[in-house]
Amino acid sequence: MAEEKSFKYVIIGGGVSAGYAAREFAKQGVKPGELAIISREVIPPYERPALSKGYLNLANKATVPQFYVCAGDGGERQFPQWYKDKGIELILDTEIVKADLAAKTLVTGTGQVFKYQTLIAATGSSVIRLSDFGVQGADAKNIFYLRELGDADHLAYAMEVKEKGKAVVVGGGYIGLELSAALKNNNLEVTMVYPEPWCMPRLFTAGIASFYEGYYADKGINIVKGTVAAGFSTNAAGEVTEVKLKDGRTLEADIVIVGVGARPVISLFKGQVEEEKGGLKTDAFFKTSVPDVYAIGDVATFPMKLYNEMRRVEHVDHARKSAEQAVKAIMAAEEGKSVPEYDYLPYFYSRAFDLSWQFYGDNVGETVLFGDNDHKSQKPKFGSYWVKEGKLIGAFLEGGTPEENTAIAKVARAQPSVESLDVLTKEGLSFVTKI
Q: Known Pfam families for this protein (predicted)?
């Protein structure tokens, strides 16, 4: 039996949240030997968004260690040596299979036992796989998902081997849009398939989506809407050769990439922690219902002060900020002090081809489209506002300058009153830049 190890603080998970939590612990003066990070991954925490952005640009590839955290917000990159220097134990390639929160004990797959005084759950999300739905042939070779560095490595290799081949991207969300662009930029023939009437339906309106669909079509990307992948054919080597669609059509494919969503990894805590909206329920300091257990990033369902409701957010920005908030709260509580409540403004962004958009706030209510959203424009710049009960509560902008992006963030937080949608349509971007 492996010996038992004990730490004052343990973080389970080695993603973005874990890396930013480690930085905050170091800032707050954690003592050597007090903190351990236990991660299934084989490398230190890194900026996950880089996988779908810079990493798959084969001609000019961004590689680890360039995107170790905290490179994403301009901070110092945390190489393995950084953790050593700070006295933080980085336990990689190690999976916790049992968490007994009452006994404050964690057990790994090899029977190693870890004790803690304070636990931070930063287990993140896992991708939803087509095999989860029993899709025929979904375990064929060259069907890829993108969540971890290993996934990106396998995909980058296949993109080189199947150069100028046919790629089918299943899903029209974040991953679908960013990877279709990456594949196209690397000279593959790309088809996107998704069941919804337009791409990125969780955020985009029909007006926003029509721009991106037009732009992608101009780049030679074939878009198939309103159907899903129902099965796959393979060759003698077990490699995928075609995608069978539910509507009866088939698409030739050398590579298939699936981006149909993710789900929070909370099975370790089932039946021990109060849950809400698919995540672990926390307060404004990311404390769960169990004393000394905190949850951050994708797995936390927390009170969103701005909208007075519980939300769970899967995004790198919240992963970073929730980590900092939880660590500050933990350290303050030890000194009998407190920190302000978490007051998060939802933020999403994406970059693909020469495009770059940002969104702040909430996308509910009536919408107004403004600006030049002709996908054939040299420099398209357009956006959308969301108005609810006479207040502007959400703002989206494609092609904005840093100042304009700051302005839409400010206005989404301030929620100014709006006279009428017509005024907003007419004023467009100037509505926020003059506030």
A: MDHAR3-like_C (PF21791), Pyr_redox_2 (PF07992)
